[in-house]
Amino acid sequence: MPVKLSAKEELFCQYYIKTLNKAEAARKARYSIRSAKEIGYNLFTKAHIIQRIEELRQEMREKLGIDDHSVIAELAELAFWNIKDFVTKQNEIKDLSKIARDKLKPVAGIKSTKTITKLGSIVTTVITTELKMVDKGARLIDLGRHLGIFEKDNKQLATKIKVTRK
Question: CA 59, 65, 67, 72: dihedral to nearest 10 degrees?
């Protein structure tokens, strides 16, 4: 039989989904500010809280039409871009309007600078365009974590301590 959450517990779950921060969610749910970190941690050990958070996550996934596959696919597109998709053989930025929208996902920003130089009657205009790309390394780490690639390494590095009492 499902456990009914208190109003504060429900608020905690709602805020946790928004912030992914246990202490902040506890504060916003009007738990003690001084002990919000501990309260958030303790709430997260309760099965009915974890179950409600998972329900909220599922509702969010359904509302947005997002599943694990779509997240992994998007991470892969951000992790496996190639600079040759954006630069010509002459090291000039390609006309981005002619590149397929899917290929433009790793472009985080574009900066154009126009410099006008006058030397007597000669006016020179130079336009410099820079592309800001997503961090491939960070996206690869995100993807690896999502796929559990690093878990094997973490298990190997874990320190095992055996405690015996007399």
Answer: -140
pLDDT mean values, one per 10 residues, the chain (166 residues): 86 94 95 94 94 93 88 89 92 91 92 92 91 92 84 59 68
Q: State the pLDDT at residue 146.
A: 79
The DSSP output letter for 1 is: -
Query: Who's near 136: CB < 8 A, 6+ residues apart?
Result: 78, 79, 80, 81, 106
| Gap between the Cα atoms of 144 and 156, Å rounded | 17
The pLDDT of residue 144 = 86
SS3 for 77-128, per residue?
HHHCCCHHHCECCCCCECCHHHCCHHHHCCEEEEEEEEEEEEECCEEEEEEE
What is the distance between the alpha carbons of residues 91 and 128, in angstroms, rounded to a whole number? 13
CB 40 within 8 A of CB 12: yes
Give the C-alpha distances (Å, rounded to integers) separating 28 from 2, 23, 139: 25, 9, 31
What is residue 150's predicted lDDT score, i.e. its pLDDT?
Answer: 78
